Amino acid sequence: MKPFLLLATRSEDEAADDEYAGFLAAGGLLPEQLHRVRLEAAPMPPITLADYSGVIVGGSPFNASDADETKSAVQHRVEGELAGLLDDVVAQDFPFLGACYGIGLLTSYLDGVVDDTWSEVAGPIVVSLTPEGSADQLFGRITPTFEAFVGHKEACTVLPTGAMLLATGEDCPVQAFRIGRNVYATQFHPELTQAGILTRLRVYHDNGYFEPDAYDEVIAAIDASTVTEPATIMKAFVERFGTA
């Protein structure tokens, strides 16, 4: 099988390595089957899509909707490089899964609207599939309503033209959509487990994903959650698009 490509943007090694491990586990992949490029560390190398089974963009401390003047030089570079890659991904309908920051990038690239209207506190939420989601080649493999982990300051407010809404939530109406047949984006994290989100909360404790005095409440909600279905989406992505 050709490897999948994970384009990562977390500068904190603990969070970056945990994210990589999460995608490996959720997808049932070996390290040689998931090539990671840390874009925050160095410019994107030349990428030939035909060398890969699919592309994954995970979460990030970056926000696609931040005002240009507040973005660092690294964020501007990363977003420019990813926009260039998305030119090819969208044109070829190449297998793509953007999670959290990835949905913001894809929405912005396709001239949808991303802003802070539907931000969600870190922790578990309930996600519901739309009829189109239930019929989808990936999402159709999971239960119509399930728990997932989120934590984001921005979200898709207006879908890009032509996007198919696959999943929604009470506090954030756009939890997943598809462009074409093979380009996917989720607001929730398909790779996160309870242990994984606890690592993220420790690393990003002071980054504004929850109020400091709500920490114990956030942890209690995570401990009481049952998050199993999102990983099925990642597994289905690997099984559907893994190519020789």
CATH class term: Alpha Beta
| C-alpha-based Rg, rounded | 16 Å
Structural class computed from helices and strand pairing: alpha/beta
Second CATH tier, the architecture? 3-Layer(aba) Sandwich
Largest sheet: 9 strands, mixed
Element pattern in H and E = EHEEHEHEEHEEEEEHHH
Classify the helix fraction into a percent range: 25-40%
Shape: globular
By CATH, the topology is Rossmann fold
Give the SSE layout.
Elements: E1 4-8, H1 13-27, E2 34-38, E3 55-57, H2 73-92, E4 96-99, H3 101-109, E5 113-115, E6 120-129, H4 131-134, E7 145-152, E8 155-158, E9 164-169, E10 176-179, E11 183-186, H5 194-203, H6 215-223, H7 230-241
Parallel strand pairs: 1-2, 1-3, 3-4, 4-11
Antiparallel strand pairs: 5-8, 6-7, 6-9, 9-10, 10-11
Helix pairs in contact: 1-5, 1-7
Task: Please give a handful of descriptors for the protein shown.
244 residues, Rossmann fold, nine-stranded mixed sheet, globular, 7 helices, alpha/beta, 32% helix, two-stranded antiparallel sheet
